[in-house]
Amino acid sequence: MGTTGSAGGGHEGHGPVRYGPFAPDTGLPALPELVEVLAGAAARTLPEPPGGGPVLREAACGYWSRRGLLTHPPEVAVAAGARPLLLSVLAAHGGDILMPRPHPASWGPLARLLGRPVFPVPVPAECGGIPDPYALLETVRRVRAEGGTPRLLLLSLADDPTGTVAPPELLREACEAAVGEGLHIVSDETWRDTLHPPRETVPLSPAEMWPDDVTVLFDLAGALTPASWPAAVARFPATPAGAAHRARTVDRLTALGALVAGPVAAAASRALDEPEAVTARTAATAALHARVADAAHRAVLAAGALARPPRAGRHLYADLGPLRRGLGARGVGDSTELEEYLGERLGTPVPGGHRFGDEPGALRVRLATAPLLGPNPEGRMEALTAVDPLELPQVAEALSILTAALGEPR
Questions:
Q1: Is the dihedral of CA 93, 94, 98, 104 positive or negative?
Q2: What is the pTM of this model?
Q3: C-alpha distances in angstroms, 265 versus 18, 85, 232, 256, 268?
Q4: In this structure, are residues 129 and 167 in contact, taking their beta carbons and an 8 Å threshold?
Q5: What is the Cβ-side half-sphere exposure of residue 335, based on CA atoms within 13 angstroms?
Q6: What is the pLDDT of residue 99?
Q7: Residue 106 — φ and ψ, nearest 5°?
C-alpha cells in the first residue's frame, strides 16, 4: 500500500534502505478536475478530525456500497496515507501476524516496527496475494505448537508485487481456513480498480463472505488520486468488536498525527464519489498499463524468464531463476545484486524480491510499467490517449531497452 515512483532513502550495502520501495505510480499527471477541487480547498487550514470527517466518510461509504459492500460512516476510518493506517490497524489487534510470501514491501517493516512476530505463508501456484490454504493451516498449527498466538492474516485480492488477482474459489478457501482458525482478516483492496480485463476478472472481497471477520483497507493512490495526496480508508465490521477495533485504530492515528489535510480531504471526497471524469481516467489508466504490462510480460518470457500474467496494477513480478547461470557470470547471485544489475541497465528502480519478503537467493524482481510510458509527463499523457501506445517511439524504445537488459544474461 502507498504509492510513489521510487524506493528513496540512502544505501545500506546494496540498494536503497529496506523500508522502500513504495508501490508503483501511474506515471501520469493528476486529473485536472481533482486538481481544481484541491486548489479550491487550499484555504482550509485545519486537517480532518481523527478518523475523517462526515463528508469524507460518507464518500467512502458510497464507494464501497457501489461495490456490493453496504457501509455506514461509523464503520469507516480515514488516515493520511496507507502506511500509518495499516500500522494503526495492526496495533489495534493483538497477536502474531501471518501474511503471504511475497507481500507488499511495507507490510513486514510495519509489523517489525510494532515488534510483532510475522510468519510468511507460501502463495498458491495460480496467484499471489493470498496464502495457500493448506500451508496456512500448517503454519497456524506450527505457530501455536511453538507457543505463538496467531491472530491476524493480511492478504490482497489484487496483489502487489505479483500483479495477479486471486480467483474467487481460492480466495474463499484461504479465508475459510483463516476464519476457521480464529484469525481476523485484513484485506488490502488498493488495486481492485486497476484490473486489466475488467469484464473477465471479478474481484471478490473477503468482507462479502465473512463480514464480521474482515477489515478492508483501500489506498486512494491505487487508482483515484496521486500518491502525493495521502489518503487511505479502512472499513471495519459492523459488530461490537469491529467498533472497538475502529476506536483503537483512531486512537493510534491520533497519536501518530495521521490526519488527512483539509484540501486533500476535499479532493479525496470527490474522487470517492466517482464522477465521470474520475471513472474515465481510472479506466483509461488501467487499460494503458494493462497493454504495456502485457508487452513487458512477453519480453520476460522471450528472455527465458518466468512471470505470472499480470491482471491488475502497474507492475509484474519476474523470476529470472532460469537465467541464473548467465547472471552468475555477471556477478549476480541473489535478488539484492539482481536489483542493482537491472536498475543500472534500465535507469529506474527495480526492487528485488527480498524487499517483498521473498527468499533473497531467488532471482525475482518487480518490474513497474510507468517507466515504460516515457521519460516525461507529456509523453505519458500521449500514451494515455494513443490508439496503440506500443507504437509510440518512447514506449517502443523503453520496451526495447527492457528486452535487451533481460536478454543479456543468456
A1: positive
A2: 0.93
A3: 30, 15, 10, 18, 5
A4: no
A5: 22
A6: 98
A7: -80, -20
